[in-house]
Amino acid sequence: MGVGRTVAQMEYVVETHALTKRFGNRTAVDRVELRVPRGSAFGYLGPNGAGKTTLIRILLGLLEPSEGNVSLLGLPQPQERKRALARVGAIVEEPRFHAYLTGRQNLTAIAAARGAAAGARIEPALERVGLRGRADHRVGTYSLGMRQRLGVAACLLADPELLILDEPMNGLDPGGMHELRELLRSFVDEGRTVVLSSHLLDEVERTCDAVAIVDRGRIVAQGSLAHLTASGTRRVRLATGDEVRAHKLLAAAHEVREVARDERGLIVTLQHGAAAGPATARLVQRLVAAGVAVYRVEPGEATLEQRFHEITARLGHERDEEGERDVLAV
Fold this sequence. Notes:
Blueprint: E1 12-23, E2 26-32, E3 35-37, E4 41-45, H1 52-59, E5 67-72, E6 75-77, H2 81-85, E7 88-91, H3 103-114, H4 116-119, H5 122-128, H6 144-156, E8 162-166, H7 174-189, E9 193-198, H8 201-207, E10 210-215, E11 218-224, H9 225-230, E12 235-240, H10 243-251, E13 256-262, E14 265-270, H11 276-289, E15 294-299, H12 304-329
Parallel strand pairs: 4-9, 4-10, 7-8, 8-9
Antiparallel strand pairs: 1-2, 1-3, 1-5, 5-6, 10-11, 12-14, 12-15, 13-14
């Protein structure tokens, strides 16, 4: 299955401007400015209840926004909803199928609503998601992982440019996660774009090229994975001849916020504002002066999980300060 381009070479396949959705007094999506690069695996990352599913429902035209604008595949929504959704495959929450029908029968029913071209894609889709051998078994006998893969097969019936998947890793065992991750990456390799919402930081980091971090309905950070992790707290990894002494010496240095140990040596987290180059040079000098051999020094990349917690912890602190000011003002 190839990707036929309906909109030539757009830079972003999803764009929103000031997108807002309120339910009474509760704001589920708060002035969201989202940009999803074409041909990427993009993670919409946040805890449960952060507004991820609400945003997906708005993108698919299942909910009307309270305010703001949406563009899907370069087409304004909801004015061009039918044209855009013809090239979108989506799973919102857990995929739903008729349990008493087989996998193939379920896809046949879905394809009937898509047209003749969709029917011709059933067999390739089953093959692609690894379900050809179970296609004639009732879906009621499928595991959660198999139902997720059948959901992806249903998405493929549209030969989509864009796949939007809501928490696709939920409930999967490690093997199922690995299979789905490899499948999603293969779609990106073909030039498709995959948007997945998730609260599973490790899987987003393994799967995605770019992410948006959402907190209480607002995007608080957005960009390539490399950029977001690089812009976090500075870390340095050191291999030394005496980890016990090195740990003690480094932990006492004013440039250092934390020292941790793993199988590859010591990971030093620098204080906020510390310049990585000069600080690292001073730490190495400190160790050498104390007679501790330093075998290797290299940048220690922050994980997405560390960056996520840094951002949300900072926001929590800012909210606490605002609350204190509000109390003082009263």
